Amino acid sequence: MSLQVPDSIVGPIPWLENHLPPTCQTLPELLDFQASIHPDAPALVAGTTRLTYREFSDRVGRFAAVLQNLGITAESRVALLGTNTEEWLVAAFASLRLGVSLDTFNTWVLSWDLQQLMEASSTQLLIMVPSVRSTDMLGQLRQLVPEFWDSSPGEVMSAQFPDLTHLIVLGGDFAETPMPAGGQSFDDLITRAEDWPVPPNAAIGTEAALVMYTSGTTQRPKAVPLRHRHLIENGYAIGTRMGLTGEDRVWLSSPLFWSFGGANATMATLTHGACLVLQEHFSADEAATLLADERCTAAYLLPSLSLVLAEEVGERIRAIDSLRTGLVIGRPDEVKRVAVDLGIGEICNVYGSTEVYGNCCVTPHTMSLDERITTQGPPLQGVEVRVVDLQTGEVVPMGDDGELQIRGRVTEGYVDNAEATEAAITADGWYRTGDAGLIRPDGTVQFLSRHTDMIKTSGINVSPAEVEAFIESSPSVDEVAVVGAPHPGRGEVPIAFVVLHSGEKTTAEDIRSFCKGSIAGYKVPWAVKIVSELPHTPTGKMVRKDLIGSATAIVESLLVER
Question: How far apart are CA 67 and CA 184, in angstroms?
Fold first, then answer.
């Protein structure tokens, strides 16, 4: 079945509203539009900085003049490596105003990772923070481009990166991390441009605004271009599902360089004329204070964040009566934790990826909690979802599971990576997510698991996520990963790797006993191994494939013993 809201659903759906997105075609136009209709409304809170929409627009215009003076044009390649600050957003929107497609770099990188990103982007101008927490980012850059330390600004000739000529450093304190001779200060440059004429908006709605990098487990990150108009449409649709208005204040601690932050939260907030409240580095105590002091009404959450908030400052969060909505990625129990333990009663469940502009499915905030914890909602307007049998390539009937495929607001492909593009996107524009899911009779989409993680035992499909969710319901279990391992008689068998809460003495056999009689026999792990930790990507995604070798060895050993 293929599903598109609202045309492909028969009958009225009371929780869908036919909102139309802003008519703006580009992000700079959107910012100018908001600054013109409510100039004094709060747009941004970041640390001690507070900007109205007019002030935000003015700062962007001044920095766009700086970039133009450096020779930056729509054909230039600009990369931004920064944390959740006002400077990140100003630098981003200023670059976009000149028609640049901006590469957003991960701040968790070290020199090897940074090299991969710089080679992929061929950047001419790098805008970056001097440090991230205890990591000396300029020190990482110096390993790659030492020429910045013995050249004048604009005259750098890098042996490894011949296109790179300019460096702008964000932040104003260079006492501990001195400015390279070939670099320039963001603060100094924008102050200098106070009276410079603002360049006209050169952005084009159908062109890429942001180039974001997937956090996949492959060696080289994939560059995902996201268009201006689609960012606006998708952001508006997401904000509408959350119930955002111009009165809302949206808290974000997830990084702006990540699609959840830059392509989702930022766009949902700005398209509705709301205020974005940034937390540069997450801590539960600071988050609780910020949410309360700023009277935030919406929060962007991840399971890891919500767990820490619930355990450390749950009572303080529940006491914030302004906080009502937001987004969370996670399993049913993780969504319920946000609604109940944190008291965010209208929290929305979501599904998506960078390739589909952050999210393509969002539960309306007015749905019942039971519905919001078990489904990721209907597709956003302008988005189609279908479910395909991976063996036959045929679209399956409603209610049957298969691979989720998305069409509509989907990236046109990976930059300079035709092979990956062809593998991910069909000739008629469907994005192959690699995720297992189904479309329910009410028109909502339900994510099941990564298709590549699916276990087939004795001809029966087993979803690792389902087994993991059950095992994690044990009070002794902190985290679990279930993977399939080859078995001579069953094809595959599920093997569980379990991390216990501190001080727990539960055994592997206790875990299997916990499963028996409560879940289907074919879902009960064939073996359980208690471990101290599980592998994750930098963005917190479980890397199950790293456990397959260990799982295979366990099966081989037990087959000999049994």
Answer: 12
